[in-house]
From TrEMBL:
<protein>
    <submittedName>
        <fullName>Transcriptional regulator, LacI family</fullName>
    </submittedName>
</protein>
<keyword id="KW-0238">DNA-binding</keyword>
<dbReference type="Pfam" id="PF00356">
    <property type="entry name" value="LacI"/>
</dbReference>
<feature type="domain" description="HTH lacI-type">
    <location>
        <begin position="20"/>
        <end position="75"/>
    </location>
</feature>
<dbReference type="Pfam" id="PF13377">
    <property type="entry name" value="Peripla_BP_3"/>
</dbReference>
<keyword id="KW-0804">Transcription</keyword>
<dbReference type="InterPro" id="IPR046335">
    <property type="entry name" value="LacI/GalR-like_sensor"/>
</dbReference>
<dbReference type="InterPro" id="IPR000843">
    <property type="entry name" value="HTH_LacI"/>
</dbReference>
<dbReference type="GO" id="GO:0003700">
    <property type="term" value="F:DNA-binding transcription factor activity"/>
</dbReference>
<dbReference type="GO" id="GO:0000976">
    <property type="term" value="F:transcription cis-regulatory region binding"/>
</dbReference>
<keyword id="KW-0805">Transcription regulation</keyword>
<keyword id="KW-0678">Repressor</keyword>
<dbReference type="InterPro" id="IPR028082">
    <property type="entry name" value="Peripla_BP_I"/>
</dbReference>
<dbReference type="InterPro" id="IPR010982">
    <property type="entry name" value="Lambda_DNA-bd_dom_sf"/>
</dbReference>
Length: 349
């Protein structure tokens, strides 16, 4: 016996004194209500039949909108996903939230966001606030290596996934950060640089740790000793990049190239280079990470490692919604290096 999912009702703008319903769409399209239900159910693979195309066209013309609350109640949830990020002033986090929003929407969910800084106590409080609003699950871009929240969520059997960072246990979607760090450093080595510094970011995130691992792997593979005084821990922001970059570039022996583990840090290094009178792309080569839209439009465009945020976000949502434990709960997306004018061979070569 074929299973026909029960029709779900919908509302929209007022048409002829009443809200447009699924019955209205069915009558206008000349099909059954169950057909309209199947065609407009985002949880099902989209049909490309002529009837399905007609149903979607009629629904759009009539302005039909499904009732999210009614649909969510039938599947035992609220149709919302909570997204927790450190801050939305960070362009990467803003881009990631927008990518998660789009991915969630494709599954019929609405994503709401909360911020927590990089403070574990604020993270816990923000997560509980989202859960108090009865979200169906959480996507965390805040996980630290010493973070207890993912373990608590696992213990409480609360659906969740981690994005851009991982604790190595919870379902996670992120870029292959070690390979990305390797690509950035290998690029500078292939240009002829041997004096390569690293703005390493904070040591409490898997992303910073793994990008540093990639840097060290590339240096060791090329037989270039790592000068530990040129490996500088920092925050993630532009101010940290300028402060630490200025300290690094004003040393008596400075590197000829710098890999900054995110684009904000690299922009800060650009500011520091300007302060000390170094010409970027001539006297100093620089590589960032994430390839945010701004960096290709700078006066000297920044070489950066591109991370496909939409792909990562789609994986994070799929992992969150998966009904059973996936065989590979930690998914890593391969990054790519985008060379630009900020990285050139060393002046002496």
């Amino acid at each position: 016996m074929d299973f026909n999912p029960p029709p779900y009702q919908g509302t929209n703008r007022i048409l002829g004194g009443k809200s447009v319903t699924m019955q209205d769409v069915a009558e206008a399209a000349g099909v059954s209500i169950s057909t309209v239900s199947r065609v407009l159910d985002e949880r099902l693979p989209p049909s490309r039949s002529k009837a399905a195309e007609r149903v979607r066209k009629v629904a759009q013309e009539l302005g039909y909108r499904r009732d999210i609350m009614a649909s969510s109640l039938r599947r035992g949830g609220t149709g919302t996903i909570g997204v927790l990020v450190p801050r939305l002033s960070d362009m990467v986090m803003a881009l990631v939230y927008e990518a998660v929003f789009r991915a969630a929407e494709r599954h019929g969910y609405f994503a709401i966001v909360a911020t927590s800084g990089d403070d574990p106590a604020q993270e816990q409080s923000a997560a509980e606030s989202l859960l108090d609003r009865r979200v169906d699950g959480l996507i965390l871009a805040t996980s630290r290596l010493d973070d207890q929240l993912p373990a608590q969520l696992r213990q409480r059997q609360i659906p969740h996934s981690l994005i851009l960072r991982t604790d190595g246990v919870s379902r996670s979607a992120l870029g292959n950060d070690e390979q990305g760090g390797y690509l950035a450093t290998r690029h500078l080595i292939d240009l002829g640089h041997r004096d390569i510094g690293l703005l390493a970011g904070p040591n409490f995130t898997s992303s910073a740790r793994d990008r540093q691992r990639g840097y060290r792997r590339a240096m060791n593979e090329a037989g270039i000793p790592v000068r530990e005084e040129w490996v500088c821990e920092s925050g993630y922001g532009i101010e940290a990049g300028e402060s630490v970059g200025y300290s690094l570039l004003t040393r008596e022996n400075r590197p000829s190239a710098v890999f900054a583990i995110n684009d904000d840090l690299a922009i800060g290094v650009m500011a520091a280079a300007h302060r000390v009178g170094l010409q970027l792309g001539q006297e100093l080569s620089l590589v960032g990470y994430n390839d945010i839209p701004l960096v290709a439009r700078l006066p000297i465009p920044l070489t950066s490692v591109h991370v496909p945020f939409d792909h990562v976000a789609a994986l994070a949502v799929e992992l969150l919604l998966a009904p059973t434990e996936p065989s590979d709960p930690i998914r890593r997306v391969m990054p790519t290096l985008i060379p630009r004018a900020s990285s050139t061979p060393p002046a002496s070569s």
